[in-house]
Amino acid sequence: MSTEDSTSIAGCIPPEIGDDRDARLTNCGPSIVKTGSSLAGKRIGMAVISSYPHDPRPRRAIEAFLNEGAQIDLICMAHERLPSREHAPGLEIFRLPLKHRRRGKLAYAYEYSAFILMSTVLFLWRSVIKGYELIYVHNMPDVLVFVALLPKVFGAKVILDQHDPMPELMMTIFGSKEESLAVRIIRKLEKLSFACADLVITVNIACKRIFAARSCRAGKIRVVMNSPDSAIFPYRSARSYASQPVKFSKPFVIMYHGSLVKRNGLEVAVEAMARVRREIPSAELWIYGPQSNYLSDVLRSAHQQGIQNAVRYLGPKTLEELVTEIENCDVGVIPNYRNAFTEINTPTRVFEYLALGKPVVAPRTAGILDYFTSDSLFFFEAGNAQELAGQISYVFSNPDRAIEVVERGQQVYLSHTWEQEREMLVRTVREMLASPRQTAALSHSSSTSV
Length: 450
Known about the structure:
Elements lengths: L20 H8 L14 E5 L8 H12 L3 E7 L7 E4 L2 E6 L8 H25 L4 E5 L10 H5 L3 E6 L3 H9 L6 H16 L2 E4 L2 H10 L6 E3 L28 E6 L8 H14 L3 E6 L4 H12 L6 E3 L5 H9 L3 E3 L14 H8 L4 E4 L2 H4 L8 E3 L4 H13 L1 H16 L3 H16 L2 H14 L1
Parallel strand pairs: 1-2, 1-5, 2-4, 5-6, 6-7, 7-8, 9-10, 9-12, 10-11, 12-13, 13-14
Antiparallel strand pairs: 3-4
């Protein structure tokens, strides 16, 4: 479940609000801070090359730690609507004067290098004046973990949270070959980065398999999935929606939300739409996410195929706004191409649709098949527009069968809710930071509760 897919937030943009700093944070960030909890008083430094609170995985981790009483320093990227330094209960944010842009390799190298240098200096300064028990680093890049080396000298533990496997992402984004020099170097850096961390956390079983095979022992890796926060995406039964007979008078809404980049296959969805419209004239494809050059190409393709009126781009939405949009759709699609990255990705969007009781058409790839069987999602061959169209039409024509499949998919979701994943994350950090005496007590408590 990749953050890069991240991108399930469909470009979370904070609404316009006043000058109250705490309001800015609580709008998209932590709202309740408990004291006297399992991480009470623990000092955590966190680094992520994205903007907070828009990146959902760091946001959820921060909320989890704050709610357990931790004190957090966060170093992240700048955002034009948010101040460079910000305070909230238990949280201090340092936004560096850098912005993430999707450009070439040299631009990425500059951006990463500048962020690492500034973060290293900042963490060193903060380590001297206040000290840290833990430095928690989110990739990309993997080498961002090097910002933790000096705090580690002062006694801090280090966790590297691997959102995305960089070799596979480079092969996908830049078309690099597996045996290319660049990919081989990135694999070596991945192994070195893992060696610098005391623990590696990743997003799904597929990523753990890959990392354990090439970069470190499996026992050093924990899986914490990118499950949607149920406080935002409340569970809703598939049968709670009013039963609708098959008809063509109202729009049949097919929804896509997420990053608008080629690997996520939006053009496959548009090609499928051209086929679906022949059987379902009322079908519409609603698209959510931040604008990109790729989106322009896709919309141009829709016009060339004569379905421009059936393909609607509705812009970026916050996580909270996406809930309403999903409830108003009829089926969610994950129209990925098959490539090195999407093969191992478990899109958070799958769980977001299921949490709200909607059927999902998803590619038959390893990262999804690790969790779902053929009767819990509607599968198609990745990149195959004809098969995607067939599954969409089947959902339209067989609403009762669609509900049965959603209900089985929801059972998978309920076994991986954020509450469960959050507890895994907190327990992992708590045990890592516990003293030997506390560790023994925790072990005894765990054994007696079984």
